[in-house]
Specification:
Blueprint: H1 3-29, H2 31-53, H3 64-98, H4 101-112, H5 119-138, H6 155-180, H7 186-205, H8 220-247, H9 250-257, H10 260-272, H11 278-296
Helix pairs in contact: 1-2, 1-3, 1-8, 1-9, 1-10, 2-3, 2-7, 2-8, 3-6, 3-7, 3-10, 4-5, 4-6, 5-11, 9-11
Length: 297
């Protein structure tokens, strides 16, 4: 009983955990170099999996251009903006901002695909946005001194990067959706999308700009953490979601998988020894409630 629901919650917990795991190596290497290393490792993992499961046969010629475009926007641009946000805003605020990809997807579907938005869904979108604003504005007490609760640089820059990450993820998913509806193997499609992102990041790190070069040395311990982060977040987490969707109700699975901003709070409490502020809990609760209304309609 509740096996599929447990899988969706497990995926959300893994995404929260990998956000915490990624914070230190992303700061050590810099967002671009960290994301490049992570994407290359994940692309290799996914490619090996697809070869072992013969998933390539489900990818047709007319699937390639949309998947390449989806990978460039959704993962290359989206994940790069995500880890730039992580370095500036910390794991908690980054998780909150990235949770906006769900309402953004609903709005884009309404604007571009003529999908209907009910009154309940509009209320869910509004509640989610308000929850994010609440958590960012009132999510930290003065007594919280851990570096994950500090903001590096102007707040508005971090917010814009987080919104760009969420929007890129939404657009990438929207482009890939028609391909997935044809029955394409999800892991094979993901390997193409991640491969495109990895290639773009490798090229970027070779540009003659200091901002894209590694900020620190890629040591074996750092490489190990990045590999674990990639495997848990994009490997195991994605597998759990696919399993959950194979037998669970889509609305329930989507809502449970959107609980990452709430799950990350006790993890940060344990890791930093600092209790999250009431505004952080309230904002996360509003995001989960808004997601429930959005997906239940």
């Amino acid at each position: 009983m509740y096996l599929y629901e447990a899988a969706a919650l497990g995926a959300a917990a893994l995404w929260a955990l990998t956000s915490l795991l990624s914070a230190a190596p992303a700061q050590h290497l810099g967002a671009i170099a960290f994301n490049c290393t992570r994407m290359v490792l994940v692309a290799l993992m996914l490619s090996v999996w697809v070869l072992l499961t013969t998933g390539w046969s489900s990818i047709e010629g007319d699937h390639l251009v949309p998947l390449i475009l989806s990978g460039f926007i959704g993962i290359f641009m989206g994940d790069t903006a995500l880890f730039l946000t992580l370095n500036r805003m910390g794991p908690r605020r980054t998780a909150m901002l990235f949770s906006l990809n769900a309402p953004m997807s609903a709005i884009l579907g309404w604007l571009l695909l003529s999908e209907k938005l009910t009154g309940l869904q509009i209320f869910g979108i509004t509640l989610t946005f308000l929850g994010v604003l609440l958590a960012i504005r009132f999510g930290k007490r003065k007594s919280q001194l851990h570096k994950w609760e500090s903001i590096k640089g102007p707040l508005w820059v971090g917010i814009l990067l987080g919104l760009a990450a969420a929007l890129s993820q939404s657009i990438g998913s929207l482009i890939a959706r028609p391909i997935m509806e044809t029955g394409a193997d999800p892991v094979a499609a993901s390997s193409i999308r991640v491969g495109v992102a990895a290639l773009g990041l490798v090229v970027m790190t070779r540009l003659p700009f200091s901002g894209v070069r590694p900020a620190g040395k890629l040591t074996m311990p750092v490489l190990g953490i990045i590999a674990v982060s990639g495997f848990l977040g994009m490997g195991l987490g994605m597998t759990l979601i696919l399993f959950a969707l194979s037998g669970g109700a889509v609305g329930i699975v989507a809502t449970l998988s959107a609980t990452t901003p709430a799950i990350i709070l006790p993890m940060m409490w344990w890791r930093t020894k600092e209790a999250p502020a009431p505004g952080a809990w309230a904002g996360a609760a509003m995001v989960v409630a808004g997601s429930a209304l959005l997906f239940a309609s």
